[in-house]
Design a protein that fits this description.
Blueprint lengths: L2 H24 L6 H8 L3 H8 L2 H25 L4 H18 L1 H7 L2 H9 L1 H7 L1 H16 L8 H21 L5 H16 L2
Helix pairs in contact: 1-2, 1-3, 1-4, 1-6, 3-4, 4-5, 4-9, 5-6, 5-10, 5-11, 10-11
Pfam family, one: TetR_N
Protein name: TetR/AcrR family transcriptional regulator
Keywords: DNA-binding, Transcription, Transcription regulation
């Protein structure tokens, strides 16, 4: 890698770190190009060069942290011996991510990420295709064998992750939800809703 490429990668890294820092510190209202460039000691031109605009930066940031969420979640699910154990492992992996990366989890569960996700849903899904395909195959196989209820994979995904996402949002915003309790209770409650 050339020195110019190394500098470019370092700039991208600083911009992404600064963007997450600013979002966590200032929320959506303070999430501006000026605040991010100041926090990362970046020029506005370098931010525009690497990301195009603020939406491009949000896209890169959301992609980065979705990848970091989905990797352990997919691993946990795919390594499980049964559908029930897979659900338990996936719920725990998701809640562990929220506990271990609260700033990134706050961003991923924010109105900013929701708007971005709605505007770029297909693009985000396509970017995660390599990770999502094995999960879809796992769900389809477990549905076909009767371990999971016979509903569409998209509905099954909502039944499994919907309660976990809602719990994470509540924990991150209201701080009135105990993640340890959720890790104990949610897997069996979800299992009772999705088992075949």
């Amino acid at each position: 890698m050339s020195p110019k490429q190394q500098r470019g990668e370092a700039t991208v890294e600083r911009a992404l770190e600064a963007a997450l820092f600013v979002y966590t510190r200032d929320g959506e209202q303070g999430f501006t190009v000026g605040a991010i460039t100041r926090a990362g000691a970046l020029s506005p031109g370098s931010l525009y060069h690497h990301f195009g605009n603020l939406d491009g930066l949000v896209h890169a940031l959301v992609q980065r942290w979705l990848e970091r969420l989905m990797t352990p979640l997919a691993t946990a699910l795919l390594e499980a011996d049964s559908a029930r154990e897979g659900i338990r492992a996936a719920v725990r992996a998701y809640l562990d991510f929220v506990r271990d990366h609260p700033d990134a989890a706050l961003l991923l569960h924010s109105a900013t990420a929701d708007r971005h996700g709605m505007a770029h849903a297909k693009e985000l899904r396509d970017a995660q295709e390599a990770r999502l395909s094995p999960l879809a195959a796992w769900l389809q196989h477990r549905i076909a064998t009767g371990e999971l209820a016979d509903v569409s994979p998209s509905l099954m995904e909502s039944l499994i992750l919907g309660p976990v996402v809602a719990t994470a949002r509540r924990h991150l915003t209201l701080r009135d939800t105990d993640l340890d309790e959720a890790a104990r209770e949610l897997p069996e409650r979800i299992w009772s809703a999705v088992r075949g």
